[in-house]
Specification:
single chain, 262 residues, alpha/beta, Rossmann fold, 6-stranded mixed beta sheet, 4-stranded antiparallel beta sheet, 9 helices, 12 strands, 29% helix, globular, binds adenosine-5'-triphosphate, binds magnesium ion
């Protein structure tokens, strides 16, 4: 198995603030990671580096057997699928859903070339279909509900057939049914041997899809624990990460956590 991500001492400093502090992390082919931690822990910063959108201030970030700083990021980025709120904000509201997905193969948002390969359109349609969104293909992005937008963004992130898929809080803003639908779909994706390596960022244990194999817990830019999911998602580790005594339940592959009563 080759390394999808190999971070050694990855540190990000902005002004006086250390956003990430000496993070060592390895993600291998076939692994499905969940990254958990409170607001401001550095999760999005970590994904920005993993997605070749940001350079570490110090340390080494290996991505798909390339090293940040020594590789043309414009060649690396198409090999990585990324779905995040920041990226969604760049999608023009009037963009048609099919185009939102198709344009990903060119690493742009906003359709700027009229001649796309029919093959690309067919692939975009198949991805929308797989995520239950093909009947929406002619709608504009602006008219979609939050849950529908999330599914279109994931289809978009998969368009370039990436070797690594990064999802930053795909469950944010979804209602209960929407969340459960997403968890189920991500669980299916996790079980698909042909799917890329996955990294999912969330605050909510309820959003951890069954089938995910590894977890990384962050707090204030540092790693609290990482490794096989069952070893990492413990009451002790989670209580440390969220700085609050938590009571954890694990049932049928799903996790829930609530504050421990005194
Ligand atoms: N350019 C910057 N200058 C100073 N601080 C920054 C900068 N960018 C981010 N930060 C801070 O770094 C910390 C980590 O941010 P990050 O977005 O990675 O957190 P997060 O774990 O994704 O949080 P959330 O769960 O709220 O999305 C935050 O406290 C944020 O305010
Ligand atoms: Mg974030």
């Amino acid at each position: 198995m080759s390394d999808v991500l190999e971070f050694a001492g990855v540190t990000v400093v902005r002004g006086r603030k250390t956003l990430l502090d000496g993070v060592d992390w390895q993600v291998k082919e076939g692994e499905r990671w969940v990254v958990l931690g409170p607001n401001g822990a550095g999760k999005t910063t970590l994904l920005q580096i993993a997605g070749a959108r940001m350079h570490p201030t110090r340390g080494m970030a290996g991505i798909l057997d390339e090293t940040m700083g020594k590789v043309d990021v414009f060649e690396l980025r198409p090999r990585i699928g990324l779905a995040s709120a920041a990226l969604a904000n760049q999608i023009p509201e009037q963009e048609q859903v099919l185009n939102v997905v198709v344009t990903a193969s060119y690493g742009v948002t906003g359709r700027w070339r009229e001649q796309y390969d029919k093959m690309d359109e067919r692939r975009a349609f198949r991805l929308l279909d797989a995520w239950g969104m093909s009947t929406f293909m002619n709608r504009t992005f602006a008219t979609l509900s939050e849950g529908e937008r999330k599914r279109v963004q994931i289809a978009r992130a998969l368009m370039s057939d990436p070797e690594l898929l990064l999802l930053d809080e795909p469950g944010a803003g979804l209602d209960l049914a929407g969340r459960e639908d997403l968890v189920e779909r991500l669980s299916e994706l996790a079980k698909d041997e042909d799917a890329p390596a996955l990294v999912l960022v969330t605050h909510h244990l309820e959003e951890v899809p069954p089938g995910f194999t590894h977890a990384l817990l962050l707090r204030e830019g540092g790693v609290v624990a990482q490794g096989p999911i069952a070893e990492v998602l413990t009451e002790d580790n989670l209580s440390t990460a969220f700085d609050m005594p938590l009571s954890l339940k694990h049932d049928d592959g799903r996790y829930t956590a609530v504050a421990k009563r005194a």
